[in-house]
Amino acid sequence: MLNFMITPLGLEDQLLGIVAAKEKPELEEKKNELIIESAKNKKQLKEIEDKILEVLSTSEGNILEDETAIEVASGLNVCITGDNQRNLLRNVSL
Fold first, then answer.
1. What pLDDT digit, counting tens, does each position of 11-61 carry?
2. What is the pLDDT of residue 9?
3. What is the DSSP secondary-structure string of 29-77?
4. pTM of the model
5. Is pLDDT at 5 greater than 70 in this prediction?
6. Is the pLDDT at 94 greater than 80, yes or no?
7. 15-46 burial, b if ≥16 CB within 10 A, otherwise e?
8. Which of 25, 38, 54, 64 has its CA 20 to 30 A from that of 70?
9. Spatial distance between the Cα atoms of 52 and 74, rounded to a whole number of angstroms
């Protein structure tokens, strides 16, 4: 069955994946790992956004004095720092 909805860019990505898998399977494996990691990061980002919105909507008074908001912000700082370190390492390895 042919899918006539494919775009030239999508076809190029598929063909590049096939060639890379045959010539350098370790690159294809790394690409797949990065895709999975990216999906996990997007899920984590959505959870963080939801948590921030929840804290902002339920906070009363000064947000800077709200202990829950401070805990959420501290947790975000750890997540962001870890992601930045991974991104720096990823850019260096490319």
1. 888 888 888 888 888 888 888 888 898 898 889 888 888 888 888 788 787
2. 86
3. HHHHHHHHHHHHHHHHHHHHHHHHHHHHHH--S-GGG-HHHHHHHHHHH
4. 0.56
5. yes
6. no
7. eeeeebeeeeeeebeeeeeeeeeeeeeeeeee
8. 38
9. 12
Which amino acid type is present at position 8? P
Residue whose C-alpha is closest to residue 31's, from 47, 42, 19: 19
Instruction: Please check whether residue 73 is in contact with residue 83, taking contact to mean a CB–CB distance below 8 angstroms.
Output: no
pLDDT at position 93 over 50: no
Which tokens in the block code for residue 26? 């370790």
What is the token pair recorded at 62?
């000064």
Q: Which two tokens stand for residue 14?
A: 């598929």
CA–CA dist 27, 19 (Å, integer): 11
3-class state of residue 7 by DSSP? coil
